């Protein structure tokens, strides 16, 4: 298959593109930061990296019309709610429209984009039950509302033009090189692995991490099919408090210095942390590695960067 990945040199794209190349796809990666795709050189001619700006329709159209892809995947985004409104709208909303419109004009059979768990908003709106894709969205940050609107854009294109466009709502993606978005659960692992102390406001703050290798696999599987059964899929992940995560880290690094300012008060402030991903599991057969193993993997990735030997798990 031919696949165009926009925003492909980022945190998730760096894991996704090697998976696509390994299954034999020819990948055109367009990113405003193509230098970060230097690691794709080992993948040979299967992966081409181009500089391009998703906010510029001509640039998206040029890449998509030349590549004639079977799949278009859009990962280009700003993770956070700190942008001036016009800049956020241009990248997150117009950028998404540029992808959908180019896919329409070029007849791309299936377009895939990243939504987010952020659309659902705080868990307190749902009580202690798992949030499904059909639940009302309560997210009200710039990022969440942009994602909610992206889901509407996808539906509008699908209904008006009969296109297949699939949104994936990743949970709190984790990995040693994560820089943007929710990072407390990342720092709870990476800072002790670097020998640094770390302090968080609430021991009972809840997260639902999913390792970046697992979310890359989700995008790969969804992109393998031409017409998924649903328009939106929750990735799900492992529900855990930062306090529990700290204990898991201490199991591997007994000397880890992880502190909390308060034991309680975080749970009610947490985003959604109970997520039903049965759609994804039933249709695509995804199975995530035990989270404990992923924590050890991250610790050992950080240790490898520092030239330290790996810690052995059980
Ligand atoms: N990482 C997470 O925890 C998480 C969770 C939920 C949803 N998501 C979503 O998944 C997608 C990918 O996330 P990520 O973690 O890989 O993010 P990232 O920021 O690491 O990657 C985004 C990529 O988009 C590129 N980009 C930015 N502006 C661009 C532009 N104008 N034109 C072309 N490329 C541009 C960046 O250079 C970067 O390579 C995003 O839509 C994000 O909102 C991520």
UniProtKB/TrEMBL annotation:
Protein name: NAD-dependent epimerase/dehydratase domain-containing protein
Annotated organism of origin: Caldovatus sediminis
Residues making up the signal peptide according to the UniProt record: none
Keywords associated with the record: Carbohydrate metabolism, NADP
CDD domains: SDR_e
All copies of domain NAD-dependent epimerase/dehydratase, residue ranges: 3-234
A Pfam family annotated for this UniProt entry: Epimerase
